[in-house]
């Protein structure tokens, strides 16, 4: 019989590439991960990995087992969801991951509604950049998460996660109120020489800003880096530069900021592991966050 925990380690090795990365993800030592994978090979009765020094590569059998293991793990999620549906009332932990703007605007009302309807649920929120949410779900550090991408920088779907759409919003160019009026046909070209307020390198927002500006024919000159949109808008109001801001963060801009709508869209999805859609706690969260999103947007 193949051990499920070891199958998860094998799948994580396929995704992360090194035993050291798997160990870090699970807070194990590399030696412990190697021992577990060796035990899995004994259970399987075939070599799953080829070891050359510190490097490991998958054998044909290893690659086949990873494919089947993903199916097994999805089936286990479905089984857990089916059993949870038989319970009377919702209880236990529900670990939620979301990006800062959603934590500030959409999540509070959803958490209040969930707490009232299901007081036995143990709700925990972790603020994360969307690019880190898929790994956190895979590694079971989260049960459900909010992630987003932009139509100009789409992200390939994760093969072991399911998503449902939550929000599609306009992206604005935020400029100081004292700035000359921009041409509607090319507002980005009018700020090519401006200082920019950008997110931290490595974040999705930083990548999107670089892509958008380079597509308009220039590379933005970053003066400040800030990941919180409230801080970004405050800096714009102080005439420290210009920035890209999504609709969710621009609902109540400070005085001294002018917002110019662009054709760019930011798309937010609710994500969870495949097979978990029918879990009552996941379904309850999806319903609550959709209701709070509609209320926030006045729908």
Write the layout of secondary structure elements.
Blueprint: H1 4-16, H2 19-26, H3 30-44, E1 49-52, E2 55-58, H4 60-86, E3 92-98, H5 100-105, H6 107-117, E4 121-127, H7 133-138, E5 144-150, E6 161-176, E7 195-198, H8 204-215, E8 221-225, H9 229-237, E9 243-246, E10 257-273, H10 280-296
Helix pairs in contact: 1-3, 1-4, 2-3, 6-10
Short description:
The protein has 299 residues and is α/β, with parallel strands linked by helices. Helix content is 41%, strand content 25%. The protein folds into 2 domains: 81 residues, Winged helix-like DNA-binding domain superfamily/Winged helix DNA-binding domain (Arc Repressor Mutant, subunit A); 211 residues, D-Maltodextrin-Binding Protein, domain 2 (3-Layer(aba) Sandwich), CATH 3.40.190.290.
How would you explain this protein's 3D organization?
The protein has helices at 4-16, 19-26, 30-44, 60-86, 100-105, 107-117, 133-138, 204-215, 229-237, 280-296, and strands spanning 49-52, 55-58, 92-98, 121-127, 144-150, 161-176, 195-198, 221-225, 243-246, 257-273. The protein is α/β, with parallel strands linked by helices. A hairpin with a 2-residue loop joins strand 1 (49-52) and strand 2 (55-58). It is globular, with a radius of gyration of 23 Å. The protein is 41% helix and 25% strand. The protein has two domains: 4-84, Winged helix-like DNA-binding domain superfamily/Winged helix DNA-binding domain (Arc Repressor Mutant, subunit A); 89-299, D-Maltodextrin-Binding Protein, domain 2 (3-Layer(aba) Sandwich), CATH 3.40.190.290. The termini are far apart. The strands form three sheets. A six-stranded mixed sheet has the order 4-3-5-10-6-9. A two-stranded antiparallel ribbon has the order 1-2. The protein has a two-stranded parallel sheet with strand order 7-8. It is built from ten helices and ten strands. The model has no long low-confidence stretch (mean pLDDT 89). Keywords: DNA-binding, Transcription, Transcription regulation. Pfam families: HTH_1, LysR_substrate. This is LysR family transcriptional regulator.
